[in-house]
Amino acid sequence: MRTLLTLQTLVPAGNPRPVAFGTIVTGLLLALLLAAPAGRSQSVSLTKPQIAVLNLESRGVDENETATLSDRLRNELVKTEAFVVVDREYMDRTLAEQGFQMTGCTLQQCAVEAGQILNVRKIVIGSIGKVGGTYAINIHLIDVASGRMEQSFKQDHRGRIDGLLPVLEKLAVEMAEKAAGSSPTSGQAQRKYRLKIFSHPSGAEVIINGKAMGKTPLAGNVPHARKLNLVIRRAGYTEWQKSITMEDNLQVNAELAPLKTGSSKTWLWVAGGVGAAALGTAAYVYLAGRESNGGNNESLPAFPWPPK
């Protein structure tokens, strides 16, 4: 009705003069703009890619546990804030309504077909298998338009199946980082912070998220909001461990206690922020972008990111 009223105003009643064609076109465009529903997001496709995660294929693993791990992967991808992840219930309902089945096609072909039905840009497929006492995870990110496998991730885990939960968190972070590196983003998604790691004594091995990064002292640039599990160890000393999230430039000082002496001062952590707290034999000291005493600004050996 709004469009009809607008068209009527283009040629007022009783006006014998012809109306210019350009005026009519302008009026039509204005009418269409006015008729467009307000509040509709017009920038979704320009920000985060919409993806769907198919349930991981179970190979010698209980299907219920595999389904639970598939849900965890979805949740971890949501937490990265790099993707718009399709809800599992919506995905299952939509595919069922279309009569979609993972039969008569390769896994990659089926993934592309499912992605077209769900109208997403990317789709995640993969499997969880078990060989002896080792679980093997394989995850692939498929571009629906081209059918090309853009990313592939694999990780082995020896131990209980619940040990795969942090593995999936790590894989989701890696997927988000690679996606951010292949497409333009803005704001905190591109921000990186400086992480410096010292120990006393120096020369201790540094392990980040299960990967050996080098020996202290060393430094590197880590993306915003990345979660790190740090382990610092040296023969003859108590192992130092801490989980951190990169929200600012951060310096870690680990004081390693000798195993024989049983020093009451096991470690010292220095990070971005302001404040101080003590708990048992561990002390936390937060400095707002400043280095602790003993730190310096000399060039430190760099560790790569992401961990290889």
Task: Explain the overall architecture.
The protein is an alpha/beta fold and 308 residues long. The protein has 2 domains: 45-182, Rossmann fold (3-Layer(aba) Sandwich), CATH 3.40.50.10610; 191-286, Immunoglobulin-like (Sandwich). It is built from 6 helices and 16 strands. The strands form 4 sheets. Strands 1, 2, 3, 4, 5 and 6 form a 6-stranded mixed sheet that branches. Strands 9-8-11-12 form a 4-stranded antiparallel sheet, with no helix packed on it. It has a 3-stranded mixed sheet with strand order 10-7-13, with no helix packed on it. The longest helix is centred in the middle third of the chain and has 19 residues, at 164-182. 26% of the residues are buried.
Task: Give a topology summary.
Blueprint: H1 2-10, H2 21-35, E1 50-53, E2 57-59, H3 63-79, E3 84-85, H4 88-97, H5 107-118, E4 122-131, E5 134-143, E6 149-158, H6 164-182, E7 192-200, E8 205-208, E9 211-215, E10 218-223, E11 227-233, E12 240-245, E13 250-255, E14 267-271, E15 275-279, E16 282-286
Parallel strand pairs: 1-3, 1-4, 2-4, 7-13, 14-16
Antiparallel strand pairs: 4-5, 5-6, 7-10, 8-9, 8-11, 11-12, 15-16
Helix pairs in contact: 1-2, 3-6
Give the overall shape, derived from the CA principal axes: elongated
**CATH homologous superfamily designation of the largest domain:** ABC-type transport auxiliary lipoprotein component
Question: Which fold name is given in CATH as the topology of the largest domain?
Answer: Rossmann fold
Q: Which ranges are low-confidence, i.e. pLDDT below 50, for 5 or more consecutive residues?
A: 1-19, 33-46, 183-189, 262-298
CATH class label of the largest domain = Alpha Beta
